[in-house]
Each structure stands twice: as structure tokens, then as C-alpha cells.
Amino acid sequence: MEKIEEYKFNNDKYESLIEDLKDYKTLNNVSLNDAYLKYKNDYVKFFDSKFLIELKAAKKFLEEDEIKALDYSKTLSSRKQESWYFGPKENHKNWNSYKNYLLNVKHRPKEVVELLNNETTEVVNQILNPYAPSGKKIMGLVLGYVQSGKTANMAGVIAKAADSGYKLIIVLAGLTKSLRAQTQARIQNDILQHNDILWHPLTDNENDIEEGLDAIPIFTKKTTICIIKKNVQVIVKLISKMKRMPKLEMQSSTLIIDDECDQASLNTKEYKDKADEISSTNKLLKKLLNDFKNVTYVGYTATPNAPFLTHPTSPDGLQSLYPRDFITPLEEPADYFGVNKLFANNIINETDEDISLPFIKRIPDSELEFLTCKRKDLPTFKPSLTNSLRDACDYYLLVLSARSLRNLKEDHCCMMIHVSRSVRMHELYRNLIYEEWFIPIKKGLENNDKEIIDRLRNLWNLESNAINSSVRSNLNCPLKIESFQKLEKNLLNELNDISINVENSDDSNLDQRLEFRDKKDKDYKTIHSIVIGGDVLSRGLTIDGLVSSFFLRESKQDDTLMQMGRWFGFRHGFEDLPRIWMTYDVELDFTNFVESENFFREQINLLNSQNQTPLEFPILVRQFEQRNPTSKGKISKKVKKSASTFFGRELWTLRFKLDQQIHKDNEKAIINLINNCESTTNSNFIKMRNAHVIKDVGFKVLLKFMDDFNFQFHADVFDNVKSFLNSDLESIDSIFKNWNIAIKGGSNIKRDIGSVKNVKTMNRTKIKNATSEDDEKMIDIKSISSPNDLLVDIEQKDIDEWEQSDEKKKFGKQLRSAAKKCREKYLGYRPLLIIYPISKNSKPEQDSDTRFKLFSRTHKKEDLNYEPHDIFGIVIALPTPPNLITNKNDLVLDLIN
């Protein structure tokens, strides 16, 4: 028989065979090999030998395609079923219409739509094959970012599921009428309107599912869809209709999508672990899943703490909503303005420059008593227009003028004030902003008041210089910012367009509800509003064009705090303009959460690369001191707590005490470490790119160094590491027997560190602390390392090979995960210590009110002669050997200080 490689194919027949094999595989829910054998046995006798060659070639193509898809998959999967969805076809009308709508009407970039296509294909391949035998169930989770396009992914999955044969789709869309209507409108505009003949909607923009004696209808050539509130009464109505469905229709392929699945859906009495005490919504959702016979449940969230801490088996013996079958992390879209740009503590580029955006503005602690109060004081409290609140309002007005010059005047643009959940407080703030800011500034602009004009000019000059040209060139905005002279002409007109609205649960504000309609909507109206609110602003509700946020709401729950971040999203044409006013403590809480959130994604990548499953190796959840990852009621009683799960983590020092002696002693500890490394290994530190590296250092040398080095504000964390490494010297010696140590060079002045000569020091600047008194006690640099620092001890030829590999590409923007995998590939499970010499002369590239010289604002009143000195930062990177993942079959809460 002829070899496939030498055969000249009939391309039309060959491509047709590929599609036939795909369809047979999907429609009969069989493996590719079974499809090939069935096709061969049924048809080969009707064709000549060339047909068999083409059939084999088609099989080979699909095998390679499946392997490629698996290699690029970001999903942590149970692999319960064969791959069945290979992407959209030409006759898939819902997806193709949606794609064209995004490209031609919404004008989304081609690469963003292609990413959406790839990610929705990955999710749909994980949901249940709609032609699988009845009685199957899949439970999964899609992990996005706050306001990053989760709804776009959800819409794409809905389109592709319907195109592939799903007959019933239920979307659980938030707890409030406004959130449900917002989701309904999105799905209507994105999907349903283009092919209404293919859909049978049970809900519309105005109406949730209605009560009645009729059953949920199932059609042969239509998909029934309902988008409902996550509300007990509404779900009961749905179940009552479900009960009236014929038995055969109950077996129709059903997709349940749960938006914000960590809110309301889970058992809020999980901590009790009692079968007769399960929260109502959770009980009803499990009934839906239990009664439908061919069903997939997909939860969407950006804050997965609660789902990850739900036990797979509910106290009543039923399957819980734990994502036992798949977890798919979405990538940040290229045009997304998100958490990592604002709060990540590892965004240093290769030229030793901190590239975090300087958009966080400080609310001084001294203002707090004038802005908010304890609950008991609410009846008599009256807020004041503090300097920071006035600046936030002034800045919003300035931005409106700038956007007008950028031809964005007809787009929605808002400010958010989120200080309390109290309805009374919202009304007080509405009056405060109107009477003490809006009216005075209106009169001032009408009368050309010099004091007010100068105030606005000074604020704009400060903020317009916050971003240097190199950072600006990578943002979605003009290369040159507008001058105040140009802005000034528009200020009064823009002020007159501003409304002041309250968004909360008080029905008396119904007439003020903001509807951010799409421009093509006949009822479109441009909204320029200062939006004041509470819980309604905390989850799900999108405030279009948000540019100025005044944020005081604190929460001891990480997921709740993160969902309050309504400032994330897409800022096309004005990515340089958003600003957020918050306290130092709240910024630190956000920073910690972002670190945890990135750790989730790293774990998913790691476990996926090791072919683990969500059920065998649950994701570790971190808990920071005096904080909860989620509501205590949602945390399973079976969760195990651990203070020593350091595998797969990098631990770093970011805050330093202002104590000359500590830093002198730390420098001695580092010099002693260098000497001990060289004497015990009989080798020297060698230059590798912009670092000095020594390899194969015994771990006891590291323990000695950790005893000698003062980790200052991070002492508890590193004490736990020492305890962890000391806990079982015999086993640790075999795992972490040898370490690599690097002294990372920067871009500042050269100096010698012990026997290591000509080390370039790093340039790291400090951020503003909560109070001037704190500035006299500590330096907080926020960022110390970049993901590529984890490659500091890898040979250049290996890095070059890695950069060109297909394996690297599948990590996308997860640069830290990619760097860890690169380490594993070329160095195995080798731990790494990196030393960062930070120059005492460190300073920002240009004047800023968010970044300062390392030793600015630090002189104590009693010690005006405090001499600046170099500071040494530390990063310890611990690997995750596959045989040492300690949480198999356990839910683990990782206690972090």
C-alpha cells in the first residue's frame, strides 16, 4: 500500500473525510479510533484502496490536531470524556454572527476576537458532548478577571453550545433586577438578535421568567434560553416548569451558566456540614442539576476562593457545585485595563524599570474621620468635602474635558464614590457633592475665579506628568497628553453635562437608575455621572467609562473586596486617564489579593502540565493575616489549614524598616553567605547576563543565612519557611539538597559586595505610606522582581530554545508560570535565592506624587541626620516537585502573614 506522505490527495475528499470523522465522533460520542474503524468497516468496501489512504490521513490529521489542542490547553481537566468540539464550522450561524458583530460593529481588535474564539472553543470542548448518553453530568469553572470580558466569553460559549446541539440554556445572572437586565441585554445584542429564528427566549429585557402552568419548551431546530435572577422565588418558577416537561425532553442537552458563581449559589451554611441545613438557593440549584439528565454546569467568576473551598460532596450527600471536572483560566485580553497594571508587585521590566501604572492616589488617614464613621454613629454623621475627595471630583471634570478633545464626548464617562453600604450615607454624599463641589466650582468657572482655575491647572499638570513617554507609548491613548490651556475652554460645558446619581437597593432611587445603552440602541443617551452607591456597585454592575474612583469601602473578605473594584475593564483611547483614590491599607489588601489570584493561575498551569485533575489536587487558597478569603459560612468544615505549603511560591521582601543597624547587619549576613557559598562549593560567583550566580550550594548554608538575615516586616513568613525547611532535615536534604544563588544586577551605581565585584545596584522607588509617621518608620517599594528573574541561573542557549518553543506559547501572558516551567525543564526542581542590592540613590524617572526617592520623607524629627544606605531585598523561589504536592484529595487553606 502506498505511503501517506507520497500520496497525492484529492483535497476536497480529504477535507470532507476530516469533517465526517469529526461529526461521527461527536454525534456518536466515541473515540477517534472507534470513529475511524466504524467508518472503515462501513465504507471501505464501496471505494478503492485510495480511499483507505485518505481515511488514514484524515485520522492522522485529527490525532495531531487533538495532541496540539491538548498541548495548548490551559484547562485543568478531569478528562472525563473524549475531545468532541474542534472549533466552529462555516454553518455555525450563532458563533459566526457573533464574531462578525464583534469585529464590524463593536470594532474589537482581530487578535482579541481570535483569543475569544480559542478560549470559548476550549470551554465548549470541556462541557458535555450534547450527544452523550443520558445521565451524564459535567461541573466546571471559568476563571476570569473582574470586568475583563467574562460576559463576552459566556456569550461565545452560549453561541457555540447552541450551534453544536444544546437545546436548553439557563443563565443565572446576578441577584438584582438591574444585573439580570444588563446580562439579558448583552446576550440579546451579542447573540439572539442576529439569528432570532434559532432561539426561543423565555425572558426578555423587561421580564424575568414568568409563573405559569406551561412546561419549558424544547424544539428540534431551536435552542430555548432563559436568563434569570439568582433568586429563590425565580428558580422555584423555573423548577415548576421543568417538572411539567415530558420525560424524554428532560434528557435534552442542557447548559447551566452561573454568572458570579461564588455569590449566592454556594451553600452559605457549608461550615456546619449538616444535611438538614443547606441554604435555599444552593439546594434548588442542585435539584436542577440532579433532575436534568444530560447537563453541564459552568460557573464564571473572577474570585474563586469560595468555589475552591467548597467540598466536592455536599452535606446532603449530593454532588456540590465544586468544579470537579474542569477549571479554565482566561487570559487578560490585550486591551484590558486590569489588576496587574494597578496592583501587581512583580512588574519590573528588563531595563530595571517599575512599569506599574501610577494611578493609585492616597486618601490620608487623617481624612477618614470626616469621610466615614462607625455604624452606631450613622444617624448623626455628616461627611465633609476633604482635599482628596475634592481632587477626585476636580479630576473627573478635567478628564471629561480631555476626552472631549479626543472625540470621546459622546461616550459614557463616569466617576464612582463608594464609601459605605448605608443608604443614608449615599444621600448625604449626593448633597455634599452637589452643594460643596458642583455649585461652587460652577460659580467659579462662570466668574473665571483665579483660585479655582489655578487649583484645576495644578492638579492637571501633576497628573498629566504622571506617566513617562515610554509607558504611555504602550497604552491605548494619544502619545501626547492635552495641555490645560486646551482643557480650560471646555470645563464649564462639561460640568453642565454632569449628573449626580445614587445606585443602591433603595426603591426610591428607581427613577435614577443608570442604563448604559449601546450607541446603536435607539434609546442611547450619553451618561456623564458621578455615581454614588454601595452594594450595587460591589459586583456585576458595569459603570461605563469609569475614570475617577473614590473608594473607602473596606472588607475583611478578599473576594468581596476584589469585586468592589469596578474600575477594571476596557479604556479604549483613554487608558492613561483613570485614577483611584484609596487608603494605603486598602491598596495593600488589593495587592495581596492580586498575588493570591496569580497564584491560583500558576497552580492551574502547574497541575495541568503534570496531568493532574481538579478533584485529585484541589487548588490551594491563601489566607492573609486578619483576613478571610471568603465568607466563613462558605468554607467547608472539611478544609484543612496549613502554615507550611510553600511549594511553588516566591517569597519576597518589599517593606523595609528605617534602621541603619539592621541594614548594616544584613549586608554582613550577605557577605558571610557569599563567603560560605564559595568555601563550601570551591567555586566563585560567575557573571551570567546582568547577575552573578553560584550553583549547587548546600541548603544548610541557606539556613544559616536565613538565621542571620533580618527580614524585618516579613519575619513571620520567613520564620515559617525556616521551620518548614527544618521540619524534616533528612527528607528536605534529598529534595532541596542544593540551591542556586544569584545577586541580581540593576541599572544603578556599581559596587562591590564582599568578593563579588562591580555589581550594578537596582533602582527601586518608594510609594507613599498611610501617614507621614509611617514614612519615618518604613520604606515600601511595592515591586522588587520580574518574572524573568526566575531565569537568572539558566544558560542563555536554553532560554533562547525555550523562547522559541511551542511549550512556552501555551502560557500566554502567564509569564511567571512560564518561567517556572522553564526552570523545571532545564534545572529540574532547583530552589533559588535572589539577592537584590537596592541603591540608596534610587529615584523615579520624573516627578510624581505616587513614587518617591528611596529616602525621601523619611527623616525622623529626633534624627535629622539619618544617612541613606543601600538596602538588600530577598526573593526565595521554591519549586513544586510532583511527588510533593501535599494537598491530594484535601481542600487546603494556606495561612499567609
From TrEMBL:
Coiled coil: none annotated. InterPro entries: P-loop_NTPase (IPR027417), Put_endonuclease_Z1-dom (IPR018310). It comes from the Bacteria. Residues 388-623 form the Putative endonuclease Z1 domain. It holds the Pfam family Z1. This is Putative endonuclease Z1 domain-containing protein.
